[in-house]
Amino acid sequence: MREFSPEQLERYSRHILLQDVGVEGQEKLLDASVLIVGAGGLGCPVAMYLAAAGVGRIGIVDGDIVDLSNLQRQIAHFTKDVDVPKVESAREKMLAINPDLDIRTYQLNLMADNIQEIIRGYDFVIDGTDNFPTKFLVNDACVMENIPFSHGGILRFDGQTTTVVPHESACYRCSFRKPPPPDAVPTCSQAGVLGAIAGMLGTIQAAEALKFITGTGTLLTNTLLTFNAKNMDFKKIKLRKQSDCPLCGDNPSITELVDAEQAVCELKG
Fold first, then answer.
1. Where along the chain do its domains lie?
2. What confidence tens digit (pLDDT) does each residue in 51-107 have?
3. Strand ranges (DSSP E) for the chain?
4. Cα(121)–Cα(182) distance, rounded to whole angstroms?
5. Coil, strand, or helix at residue 194?
């Protein structure tokens, strides 16, 4: 068993006090690794809560730089960070809250030819991306590499999320077979998003990662959690693993990764 320093015992005391987490659960967190795809509206709160929780190794992928319009919802980025790579801005804030972590940055866009190499070795993946092609790519790569992940997206006042445990629960393609046509769904820059919605959904995704690592509670597998913040209406929609899924079904037709045509975001991070 890991020997905790006095500082660690104090830092993580509220976890250790939890009967369902305790010392063993905190040890699991310190030994775990999570990859966050996207350092935007969803990825920022995920990054801060995973860092605060003591997840030992956290990777964060994003090819963009901080823009002034990001600051309304992307809480890991400050005004001084405008024009700074998002992954570096996020890393700075994560280490400020917990300097003992291994934070790995990938300033790039995930593509079919690099995603598998990047996600290998991580225990859990958080999808906080803002476009359909990357969401499907993350799903496909995680299923192929047998890595559990959390899908999430937001737009206007709405959010949705589900957790996928490959080959055990429904994957993204079980419910949504392929990306919609380009320009079929508006982006946040076209339709807007209430900033706090990103925090609401991002913290749910972070909680799913912590629950998976510690083995606590029930994950959002085979369930699509949706909410509308205008009336705080939360719903759970049951999903089922589909035997005819082109990726994880009985006779899969998707056997290699491809880069789909870039479409606008489904639910923007």
1. 32-238
2. 999 999 999 999 999 999 999 999 999 999 999 999 999 999 999 999 999 999 999
3. 33-37, 57-61, 102-106, 124-127, 149-155, 158-164, 223-228, 233-238
4. 33
5. coil
Report the percentage of the chain scoring pLDDT > 90: 87
Token pair in block for residue 63: 């090819």
Nearest to 265 by CA among 207, 196, 198: 198
Task: Name the β-bridge partners of 126.
Answer: 36, 150
Sign of CA dihedral 255, 177, 106, 95: negative
CATH 3.40.50.720 for domain 32-238, yes or no, is yes
From residue 11, alpha-carbon distances to 24, 51, 163, 180, 204 in Å are 15, 12, 28, 45, 22
110: its two tokens: 């995930």
CB contact at 8 A, 142 and 125: yes
Element spanning 48, H or E: helix 43-53
